[in-house]
Amino acid sequence: MQDTPKYQLVSSAKLPTRWGQFRIYGFVETATQQEHVALTHGEWQPDEVVSIRIHSECLTGDALFSTRCDCGFQLENAMKNVVAEGRGVILYLRQEGRGIGLLNKIRAYNLQDQGMDTVEANEHLGFDADMRDYDICKVMLDELNIHQVRLMTNNPRKIAALKGMGINVVERLPIDQGITDDNRHYIQTKTRKLGHEFDQHVFKTDPADE
Question: Which residues are designated catalytic?
Fold first, then answer.
């Protein structure tokens, strides 16, 4: 008897957006029924390098326009970049709050309101600082016939994850958009504690650094 695959492509459809025409592919993790999507724009050959972004779901930033993180800004910029280039992919993973879920993220926000940083808040709640998993990215990219990528990210863990799965990461494309007074400390914490790579201008106006 053949084993059920861990992830399955369910269906795809056209997805017109404010920035251009995409196609949306729906995937499901069979054991948990967790759903993920890939957005594609344009066409490519299997041996070509394609620009992609791995974006973890952020309801507050992506849909509610929160400025206490940079997620919504980065998603919008990545979609614009893909359309401007003429082709590319957004892998949208349902891993809210770096993997702790929406309600726990709100609990973490409450702790941050009381003075903790984003890493301290997650750990206070009993979670690792970053609990995300990127295994499905390999399935998505194989399905889309992509084997070499330029990755839009500030997070070296995503580069390491793709390389570990046999994806050739040809180049890292920085995506520093969305730095605000509300999220500057959050971004500094990601840089100092999680190794994210941001342009150093994010530090220049923080009184703590003077």
Answer: 130, 132
Burial 29-48 (b: 16+ CB within 10 A, else e): beeeeeebbbbbbbebeeee
| pLDDT tens by residue, the chain, 210 residues | 457 789 999 999 999 999 999 999 999 998 889 999 999 999 999 999 999 999 999 999 999 999 999 999 999 999 999 999 999 999 999 999 999 999 999 999 999 999 999 899 999 999 988 889 999 999 999 999 999 999 999 999 999 999 999 999 999 998 877 788 888 888 888 888 777 777 655 554 444 443
Q: Strand 148-152 and strand 168-173: pairing?
A: parallel
* Domains of the chain, earliest start first: 22-95+132-197 (3.40.50.10990), 97-130 (no CATH)
| CA-based torsion, 29, 136, 62, 207: positive or negative | positive
